Amino acid sequence: MATKRIGKQTVKLQNPPNIIATACIVGPKEGEGPLRLYFDEIIDDELFGEKTWEKAESKLMRETFAKVLKKANKTAEDIDYIIAGDLLNQCLAANFGLRESEVPFLGVYGACSTMAESMSIGSMLVDGNFADNVVCLTSSHFCSAEKQFRFPLELGTQRPPTAQWTVTGSGGVVISNKGNGPYITHITTGKIVDMGIKDVNNMGAAMAPAAMDTIVSHFMDTGFTPEDYDLIVTGDLGAVGKEICDELTREQGYNISKVYNDCGLMIYDRQKQDTHAGGSGCGCSATVFAGFIYKKLMERVINKVLFIATGALLSTTSSQQGESIPCIAHAVSISNTIS
Amino acid sequence: MATKRIGKQTVKLQNPPNIIATACIVGPKEGEGPLRLYFDEIIDDELFGEKTWEKAESKLMRETFAKVLKKANKTAEDIDYIIAGDLLNQCLAANFGLRESEVPFLGVYGACSTMAESMSIGSMLVDGNFADNVVCLTSSHFCSAEKQFRFPLELGTQRPPTAQWTVTGSGGVVISNKGNGPYITHITTGKIVDMGIKDVNNMGAAMAPAAMDTIVSHFMDTGFTPEDYDLIVTGDLGAVGKEICDELTREQGYNISKVYNDCGLMIYDRQKQDTHAGGSGCGCSATVFAGFIYKKLMERVINKVLFIATGALLSTTSSQQGESIPCIAHAVSISNTIS
């Protein structure tokens, strides 16, 4: 059989898999934001009835998995693979949240690019006849992320305007070989890009070149143009990163401004909610996709989306050792029709 | 096209991909062990010319990538995906070690099951015509792992007899759609199994039920028996875990004893090298596979191997919060002939 690769980084799926259901659960702050009506569930407090933030994040993942199965009218028995990961050390949220699932499990780590990475692998496994149904999941939690990556919350550390707010939330999708769309038609897998930025309070700027690299590669590999899309949406570049990405992409000959948005800007009202440059975390793009974008696709308000989740692949150890921030972005092209 | 799934957890590859090259670099202690003649390179000191253990581990990954490309007579341009991960928080070794590779990158986290997980995904991407050539890589480092998971080395903490010794080393393979074998014919993807064990100094015992679960699923799904294999090899159960796995598997009706070994037992002379229950870490199964097992396949000393890498999906946070240890094992069936 002929290769499904087009260009250097892109795969054109032969039998584009369907996204048959999505689900998402978010925290109280996300539940006060402009997308509140699109989320399946808004939890009352960050602990979600658990004793620790990490256990709360695991529970977010577990409940989102249960919810997406129910919405897809499937049981765990029907699922061939779970593909999941998160930001916590050793992917604690996914590994503990999904340990009772009884489903073959592939753990991934792509920082905040995880949703697009898992959907990329998932759609290849379905298209390649290795699976009938795959669940892709991720999560993040403001408190567990602050505790792990930054400062104790109790310290009340002031944040610079370029800082972003980690989304508390989990989002998941079921990708299936049967259905009526929306279809995953192409995936463009990112390379690691490190432009030497070291400011951990400006991850949007660090990630923007990786996002641009993947977006431009997608256009070059597929022959698509920005006009082919109703929405081009990055994961969590926030206000600073989005502007840089927009400009860098334009410098490469592709003007995406008219259809370009960023999940980190969509999830909060930045002025009223004091979230500085916007949202971030694996759960940001996951819940905005599962909650808002998927519903707009189903309503046919939009028909073709390029979803680019973006990840900063740093750790506290690497930053303490003076390292810059390697970044990555993966793109998934989703359409209501198969071209 | 028909599904490639057989049974609940196994995929039979339609055009079994080839492992066209392997490479591995190990630390000084591993270089004094019984497999020393099989490793491509033995480094003189754990720092490998770097200032920190984490940078040394990243360098192990980078140099192993360069070496495996060279041995496969390929350049980075020929590689469609790198699939890699490691034990460090946020997969530091892979993300920093491979950031200059310029190859589409899929990060995975499966703790010490990473080598089999990455080979599973890699072989599906090749078999499914999504890639011509994929590199799968992982690493671990005794010092960076001790520092992150256990105690400062300077403390000289005494270790119980059930404890294992994290291998310093990196192993990688090139999986290709062209070649003359050895072939990856089947993969069996594990589920997360948590039997409630909490002793972080006895990970072999924690992982054994997951290994058994995947081995038994493999036999049930494929119809193979232990007699079909020249070698059934788990990743890093060590002395305690190997015995448990052997017994649990026998209880399920499969006697693997005659052909069963464990990479953690193969890599060190446990008596002379004071490594207690044996080796562990992502690098354990990766270097034993890349160094020893692959060469024995190429020499036709053995012709059919079931390689089961095993992972303990804990973190220091989860253990501090009183959690048990969820585990996973992924199996890759490799043969010199296509059945």
From TrEMBL, chains A, B:
**Coiled-coil annotated spans:** none
Q: What is this protein called?
A: Stage V sporulation protein AD
Q: Superkingdom, according to UniProt?
A: Bacteria
Origin organism is Acetivibrio clariflavus (strain DSM 19732 / NBRC 101661 / EBR45)
> Which InterPro entries does the annotation name?
SpoVAD, SpoVAD_sf, Thiolase-like
Query: Pfam families in the record, alphabetically?
Result: SpoVAD
Gene Ontology molecular function, alphabetical: acyltransferase activity
The record ties this protein, via NCBIfam families, to: PRK08304.1, spore_V_AD
